[in-house]
Design brief:
Blueprint lengths: L2 H14 L3 H21 L4 H25 L2 H15 L8 H15 L7 H12 L5 H13 L1
Helix pairs in contact: 1-2, 2-3, 2-4, 3-4, 5-6, 5-7, 6-7
Protein backbone atom coordinates (compact mmCIF):
# COMPACT_ATOMS: atom_id res chain seq x y z
CA UNK A 1 0.00 0.00 0.00
CA UNK A 2 1.34 3.42 -0.99
CA UNK A 3 1.65 6.43 1.26
CA UNK A 4 -1.43 8.10 -0.22
CA UNK A 5 -3.51 5.00 0.51
CA UNK A 6 -2.11 4.91 4.05
CA UNK A 7 -3.13 8.53 4.56
CA UNK A 8 -6.62 7.78 3.24
CA UNK A 9 -6.97 4.75 5.52
CA UNK A 10 -5.78 6.76 8.52
CA UNK A 11 -8.31 9.49 7.64
CA UNK A 12 -11.12 6.92 7.61
CA UNK A 13 -9.95 5.60 10.99
CA UNK A 14 -9.82 9.14 12.40
CA UNK A 15 -13.35 9.74 11.17
CA UNK A 16 -14.56 6.53 12.82
CA UNK A 17 -12.93 7.41 16.14
CA UNK A 18 -13.96 11.09 15.95
CA UNK A 19 -10.35 12.26 16.22
CA UNK A 20 -10.89 15.81 14.95
CA UNK A 21 -7.24 16.93 15.04
CA UNK A 22 -6.01 13.93 13.06
CA UNK A 23 -8.92 14.21 10.65
CA UNK A 24 -8.19 17.89 9.96
CA UNK A 25 -4.45 17.38 9.50
CA UNK A 26 -4.92 14.41 7.16
CA UNK A 27 -7.60 16.16 5.13
CA UNK A 28 -5.29 19.11 4.53
CA UNK A 29 -2.50 16.81 3.33
CA UNK A 30 -4.81 14.75 1.14
CA UNK A 31 -6.20 17.94 -0.38
CA UNK A 32 -2.67 19.04 -1.24
CA UNK A 33 -2.03 15.60 -2.77
CA UNK A 34 -5.20 15.79 -4.86
CA UNK A 35 -4.34 19.29 -6.12
CA UNK A 36 -0.85 18.14 -7.07
CA UNK A 37 -2.28 15.10 -8.87
CA UNK A 38 -4.56 17.34 -10.93
CA UNK A 39 -1.51 19.28 -12.06
CA UNK A 40 1.03 16.46 -12.39
CA UNK A 41 -0.85 13.19 -12.57
CA UNK A 42 -0.40 10.33 -10.06
CA UNK A 43 2.24 11.05 -7.42
CA UNK A 44 4.95 8.73 -6.19
CA UNK A 45 5.46 8.12 -2.48
CA UNK A 46 8.47 10.46 -2.58
CA UNK A 47 6.33 13.27 -4.00
CA UNK A 48 3.68 12.67 -1.33
CA UNK A 49 6.42 12.81 1.32
CA UNK A 50 7.55 16.14 -0.11
CA UNK A 51 4.01 17.48 0.24
CA UNK A 52 3.92 16.29 3.85
CA UNK A 53 7.27 18.01 4.48
CA UNK A 54 5.81 21.24 3.11
CA UNK A 55 2.80 20.93 5.40
CA UNK A 56 5.10 20.27 8.37
CA UNK A 57 7.15 23.34 7.48
CA UNK A 58 3.98 25.45 7.24
CA UNK A 59 2.86 24.22 10.63
CA UNK A 60 6.28 24.96 12.16
CA UNK A 61 6.14 28.51 10.81
CA UNK A 62 2.57 28.91 12.07
CA UNK A 63 3.68 27.62 15.46
CA UNK A 64 6.34 30.33 15.65
CA UNK A 65 3.72 32.98 14.91
CA UNK A 66 1.37 31.53 17.52
CA UNK A 67 4.18 31.62 20.09
CA UNK A 68 4.85 35.27 19.29
CA UNK A 69 1.17 36.16 19.56
CA UNK A 70 0.78 34.35 22.89
CA UNK A 71 -2.29 32.37 21.83
CA UNK A 72 -1.98 29.33 24.07
CA UNK A 73 -5.28 27.88 22.82
CA UNK A 74 -3.91 27.57 19.28
CA UNK A 75 -0.49 26.41 20.46
CA UNK A 76 -1.69 23.01 21.69
CA UNK A 77 -3.74 22.37 18.54
CA UNK A 78 -0.89 23.23 16.20
CA UNK A 79 1.56 21.06 18.16
CA UNK A 80 -0.77 18.06 17.91
CA UNK A 81 -1.23 18.52 14.15
CA UNK A 82 2.51 18.91 13.70
CA UNK A 83 3.22 15.65 15.54
CA UNK A 84 0.54 13.83 13.53
CA UNK A 85 2.20 14.87 10.26
CA UNK A 86 5.75 14.22 11.48
CA UNK A 87 4.75 10.60 12.14
CA UNK A 88 4.54 10.07 8.36
CA UNK A 89 8.04 11.37 7.69
CA UNK A 90 11.15 9.19 7.80
CA UNK A 91 13.20 9.27 11.00
CA UNK A 92 15.42 12.37 11.10
CA UNK A 93 19.18 11.94 11.25
CA UNK A 94 21.04 13.08 14.34
CA UNK A 95 23.91 15.58 14.08
CA UNK A 96 26.38 12.74 14.71
CA UNK A 97 24.92 10.68 11.86
CA UNK A 98 25.08 13.69 9.53
CA UNK A 99 28.68 14.29 10.58
CA UNK A 100 29.56 10.66 9.81
CA UNK A 101 27.94 10.87 6.37
CA UNK A 102 29.68 14.21 5.75
CA UNK A 103 33.08 12.71 6.57
CA UNK A 104 32.41 9.90 4.10
CA UNK A 105 31.35 12.38 1.41
CA UNK A 106 34.45 14.53 2.02
CA UNK A 107 36.65 11.46 1.65
CA UNK A 108 34.76 10.36 -1.48
CA UNK A 109 35.30 13.65 -3.34
CA UNK A 110 38.73 14.29 -1.84
CA UNK A 111 37.75 17.68 -0.44
CA UNK A 112 40.51 19.55 1.35
CA UNK A 113 39.27 23.11 1.83
CA UNK A 114 36.07 25.15 2.18
CA UNK A 115 36.31 25.81 -1.56
CA UNK A 116 35.22 22.18 -2.08
CA UNK A 117 31.95 22.70 -0.18
CA UNK A 118 29.84 22.50 -3.33
CA UNK A 119 31.34 19.16 -4.37
CA UNK A 120 30.69 17.65 -0.95
CA UNK A 121 27.14 18.99 -0.75
CA UNK A 122 26.37 17.61 -4.21
CA UNK A 123 27.27 14.12 -3.01
CA UNK A 124 25.85 14.44 0.51
CA UNK A 125 22.45 16.07 0.00
CA UNK A 126 20.84 13.18 -1.94
CA UNK A 127 21.82 10.88 0.95
CA UNK A 128 20.18 13.04 3.64
CA UNK A 129 17.30 14.53 1.65
CA UNK A 130 14.23 14.80 3.84
CA UNK A 131 16.01 13.37 6.87
CA UNK A 132 18.21 16.34 7.84
CA UNK A 133 17.93 20.11 7.63
CA UNK A 134 20.03 21.56 4.81
CA UNK A 135 21.39 24.34 7.01
CA UNK A 136 22.58 21.84 9.60
CA UNK A 137 24.27 19.77 6.90
CA UNK A 138 25.94 22.87 5.47
CA UNK A 139 27.23 23.94 8.91
CA UNK A 140 28.63 20.49 9.65
CA UNK A 141 30.39 20.24 6.29
CA UNK A 142 31.85 23.74 6.66
CA UNK A 143 33.15 22.90 10.14
CA UNK A 144 34.74 19.67 8.90
CA UNK A 145 36.37 21.38 5.92
CA UNK A 146 37.81 24.18 8.05
CA UNK A 147 39.20 21.81 10.68
Amino acid sequence: MGLKETLQQDLHNAMRTHDERRKLALRLVLTAVQLAEVEQGPLSDEQVLELIRREVKRREEALELVLLSGRQDLLAQDKVELEILRAYLPQALSADEVQELARAAIAEVGAASPADLGKVMKVLMPQVKGRADGQLVNQIVRALLVA
